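Possible regression after last week's pipeline update?

I re-ran a chain I had predicted before the update to compare outputs. Posting the input and the new output here so someone can diff against the archived version. Not blocking, just want to make sure nothing changed silently.
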Amino acid sequence: MTFDTGDTAWVLTAAAVVLFMTPGLALFYAGMVRAKHALAMLMQNVFAMGLITVLWVLVGCSLAFGTDVGGAGLLGGLDLVGLRGLVDAPVPGFEALTIPPLLFVGYQMMFAVITPALITGATADRLRFGAYAAFVGAWSLVVYAPVAHWVFSPSGWLYRLGALDFAGGTVVHVNAGAAALALVLVVGRRRGVAGEAMPAHSLPLTLLGTGILWFGWFGFNAGSALGANAVAAVALVNTQVAAAAGMLGWLALERARTGSATTLGAASGAVAGLVAITPAAAFVGPLAAIAIGAAAGGLCLLGVRLKHRFRYDDALDVVGVHLVGGVVGSLLLGVFAQRTSLGVGADGLLFGGGVALLGRQLVAVAATFAYAFGMSLILAKAVDAVVGLRVPADDELAGLDVSLHGERAYHDTDASTGRAAPVASMAVPSKE
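New output (post-update):
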């Protein structure tokens, strides 16, 4: 086999950049929790880089991209267990790739890593570490891998149906958002959430995480072209444009509703725009990317408010941003998609395609949500029954950093509140 060196170099870079998104996500989330839970949040995200990588190599990749079982388009077989044969044989359905097969599955591995990590923001401050490990490990095989097969594998049923998802609007964002909703319904609300202020302890960390995520999303979306080509260029420009529009859309609505445009709103709006453009990145033009990003910014802000109305405790707005953003982007793709001279995509509602593509997108969103929510609910209840999902009340009060990991992110933190402890004096102590 011979491969294009330029394409190979680009996807190698994109894979590394996508992996960098997971520590970026860890910082994004850690800054939003109280100080006494910061290390626990970082740990959950970084741990996913280890656990999911090993599971992906052992069996996850095969379930997602192996030869389809029974021709139903539901699940890959076990022919790629341990990445068997991928040094000198193509991935089934991807024989025309201009990059090495191992690089393709390595790039997809980074998607498999960050998707369950997204869920962690919803259950912040109250999840046992062992229960988290059991849940996301099982979830990556039982939920993520099958949905990836449906959408990304040429033999998957949604792929054959003609539903479009360039880089993971359904596979990553609707999938993780639905799982987050199921998990918070089982684990319950944080103690004191109704009457106690729980401010973000470090918005600068959250903004740093936002910047890393924004940077990494170029690898996420433009890298999904699987080559250094014009399709990647379209995806890159649309990614930047939608993120910017998402930020502006969120802030405009936030300012109109509350009188303030906040830094957390800017960060959340940018991520909402990035989420929404993910399925459409190479299938729409830049003006459509602005519309998609701006719509996601406003609608995700409204989506975040739903947790107050329905009283589920999505601590860091995974449902409001990732589930709502993934749905918005996937459906608006059916409106704004335009088949280009590059031969990519299909025509949506506004470009002569009628409602056919929009209908297929609706099927993809509904199927992904129903499967991810249902299976995640079953997994969450099973883990809760076996090991218990939630930490004891005393551990939650003390903070997960100390109670679960025996460490502190900051040694001048009041353990009872998670806030910086008062400094008695700034005087330099005497050496006597």
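Follow-up from reviewer: compared with the archived run. The two ends are 74 Å apart (CA to CA). Marking as no regression found.
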